[in-house]
Design brief:
Length: about 240
């Protein structure tokens, strides 16, 4: 489509990894997101792994619904059925995730907001994500000819290093210790960044020769794509055609 319309494009994928650090969060595992860019979309190893992850997400969603139903039973709320799962899947343009379940609970009138759905059910009823370490994620993307970027490292409401520490210097110390040799860049501009976060990660990226990227992180409603101003120099880092 890009070729037909005469516009440039960059291939991209968001990959979730499992990470733990002995000095933080009592050594427990957390999730972090990484962004793969400019890889060969025909690379079989990467394609196979992404298909495995997508299949697991469908299985995970069904298990989360089972857990939610167990809570509904305690509360006397009508349980969700396979038909409900089908309705959720039909509403998804892409891969099924917890936000889609949350939005469905809002539409059904069980909760008022997506955040309430997470607070009341989805955090408690969660099922572990597909286990993938940053080393493997990096190898897959780089072997496919791409670059890999640490996504939204200080996102206060998302999958980020905030779970380990809110201190920006401590976050970048963790990146230096654990990720630096496995990444090519860091996401400096994000829809939930404040100026302090953006400036901190720009400085860190420049000091370590990392690519600087940015994005609105628009996965579904509300549609915020295009609302975040990102410097034009960002696209100049990519070999776009």
């Amino acid at each position: 489509m890009a070729k037909r319309k005469g516009i440039s494009y960059v291939s991209g994928v968001e990959i979730n990894v499992t990470f733990s650090h002995p000095r933080y969060y009592e050594g427990k595992s957390i999730s972090l997101d990484f962004l793969g860019y400019q890889f060969d979309i025909g690379n079989e190893e990467l394609k196979d792994k992404l298909h495995q992850i997508a299949a697991y997400r469908e299985e995970r969603a069904a298990r989360i619904l089972d857990n939610i139903n167990a809570e509904f039973e305690k509360e006397g709320v009508e349980k969700l059925t396979l038909g409900n799962l089908g309705e959720i899947q039909a509403s998804v343009d892409g891969v099924l995730g917890r936000p889609h379940i949350a939005d469905y609970l809002v539409r059904k009138g069980i909760v008022r907001t997506r955040q309430e759905a997470f607070d009341k059910y989805l955090v408690r009823c969660d099922v572990p994500k597909y286990l993938l370490c940053v080393e493997e994620a990096s190898r897959l993307v780089r072997n496919a000819g791409g670059i890999i970027v640490l996504a939204h490292p200080n996102d206060p409401h998302g999958t980020s290093l905030v779970t380990l520490t809110k201190s920006l210097p401590e976050q970048t110390e963790i990146v230096e210790e654990s990720f630096l040799k496995h990444i090519d860049g860091v996401e400096c501009w994000h829809s939930r960044n404040n100026a302090k976060t953006t400036n901190h990660y720009i400085k860190f990226a420049k000091e370590n020769g990392l690519i600087m990227t940015g994005g609105s992180d628009c996965h579904q409603k509300p549609i915020i794509m295009g609302t975040l101003k990102i410097p034009e120099c960002v696209v100049e880092q990519f070999n776009v055609k």
